[in-house]
Specification:
By secondary structure, the protein is α+β, with helices and mostly antiparallel strands. Among the domains are: 141 residues, no CATH class; 62 residues; 94 residues, no CATH class. Helix content is 54%, strand content 11%. It contains 9 helices and 8 strands. Strand 1 and strand 2 form a beta hairpin.
């Protein structure tokens, strides 16, 4: 093989599909052209794609892997703000499994040498039968990229260069024993190295599964808390409506009772007058009775009309109040839009220009690490940084604040009988989703007391 065609270390990029297989391969230079906007990939439009950066040696064996995410817009163009230093991460990555050329350098979410890039990486699936590293190894072996391969077959030795040792040197028991000892030691070292690599691979898989489980638990816990808060708010609204309805019913019952008492007294008075008239003249009594019935019907009709008028007036007042409420809400929404527009005319334009120049807004919060804030999230982060950081940790804002107080001063917060705080130093909980009030922020004695109180 000539010096011009001697194969070198090659950098490639491989795309994974939703089914977990390698669906596309390209050289790293082609990937850089994709990032520069030279070409688009419509097949990945409006998707977050799982990609692997791979360094391949001349014998088609993997030496380094970086698993990362890349977002594509609706036209298939990559995210313009993407800026992960893949080559730097692969050079500083930790040891991974042996894929044929010794332990590889592996950078993923569970093993990231640069902490603020951790959120943009993903953990490979290491389950037997569907190992992402094995898929990459097989894809490289197929050599769909057409790489130059180094011929590592043993060179043939010419017969004239072979020499036979003298007979007195054919047998060397001590040398044979020494060679056997070296071979045994070499095999023992290889066995230990393979065992250590297997343990490393299993630990990486366990770490990946544990992180996925913690994220799922945190998401479920946050959804449960949000659902509980929503149900509590609905229950409060229903209780308020029920109390108002009870008050209205009581008022109407009181009005009906007063009206019934008034009608009863009026009926008794008219009945007494009618009896007196009957004693004097039955004809006149009959006239008075008819008059009484007519007046009674007229008063009833007047009372009914008056209450109908009052109900109509209340309906009109209710409609007018609803209309005023709607106008008030519209006015509030309009003022909010005007406020957002006025606020965005200054700082938002500057932020957009900075984002266009490639500036990335990175902040640090305990528990969440270094967060890269997209331009559209700057407003929500400015309004409530704690809530933003809590959402990134998959916990509520209240739990995040309680955890932050514990993280800044890890001591027992239980109250002693004297009223003072226990303040015994305790182990710090580094993850907000693992923090539990009454357990994580208490010493062993008060933690046990809390559990007994809960059981009792």
């Amino acid at each position: 093989m000539s010096m011009q065609n001697k194969p070198q270390m090659v950098e490639a990029v491989m795309f994974f599909n939703e089914r977990g297989g390698v669906c596309k391969q390209m050289f790293f230079t082609e990937f850089e052209a994709l990032l520069d906007g030279v070409v688009n990939m419509p097949e990945f439009a409006d998707q977050q794609t799982r990609i692997a950066y791979v360094a391949i040696n001349p014998r088609l064996l993997i030496r380094a892997v970086v698993f990362f995410y890349l977002d594509f817009d609706e036209k298939g163009a990559p995210d313009s703000g993407w800026n992960i230093p893949l080559q730097h991460l692969s050079e500083r990555a930790g040891r991974g499994p042996d894929l044929g050329a010794g332990p590889i350098r592996l950078a993923c979410r569970s093993q990231c040498p640069v902490s603020w890039h951790q959120m943009h990486l993903w953990d490979p699936n290491l389950a037997p039968g569907h190992n992402d590293l094995v898929l990459l190894r097989d894809a490289v072996k197929r050599n769909n990229l057409g790489l130059l391969v180094e011929d590592d077959s043993p060179q043939a030795i010419a017969p004239e260069r072979l020499h036979m040792a003298s007979e007195d040197k054919w047998y060397a028991p001590d040398a044979a024993a020494e060679v056997a000892s070296r071979v045994t030691e070499t095999m023992d070292q290889e066995h230990r190295l393979k065992t250590a690599q297997l343990i490393k691979q299993q630990r990486l898989r366990i770490s990946s599964l544990s992180r996925q489980h913690e994220e799922e638990v945190a998401k479920l816990k946050l959804a449960h808390e949000q659902q509980g808060e929503s149900l509590q708010a609905q229950a409060s609204e229903l209780r308020l409506a029920l109390r108002q309805q009870k008050e209205l019913n009581a008022t109407l019952k009181a009005q009906l009772a007063a009206q019934a008492a008034s009608m009863q007294s009026f009926r008794e008075e008219m009945t007494e007058q009618m009896r007196e008239l009957e004693r004097h003249d039955r004809t006149e009594s009959e006239i008075l009775r008819v008059q009484f019935e007519n007046e009674l019907q007229a008063k009833i009709a007047a009372a009914v009309a008056e209450y109908k008028e009052q109900v109509a007036i209340r309906d009109v007042e209710l409609a007018y109040r609803n209309e005023q409420d709607a106008q008030t809400h519209e006015e509030v929404d309009r003022l909010k839009r005007e406020r957002d527009e006025l606020a965005g005319q200054g700082g938002e334009q500057i932020l957009e220009r900075l984002a266009t120049l490639g500036v990335v807004f990175v902040v640090y919060h305990p528990g969440a690490g270094h967060l890269t804030i997209p331009l559209q999230d700057i407003g929500s982060y400015r309004d409530n940084p704690m809530a933003y950081a809590a959402a990134k940790c998959f916990v509520s804002e209240v739990q995040y604040r309680q955890w932050l107080a514990h993280y800044q001063q890890p001591s027992c917060e239980a109250a002693l009988p004297s009223g003072q705080r226990c303040a015994i130093p305790i182990d710090r909980v580094d993850t907000p989703s693992r923090f539990t009030v009454g357990n994580s922020n208490c010493c062993e004695r008060h933690k046990a007391t809390s559990r007994l109180r809960t059981v009792g």
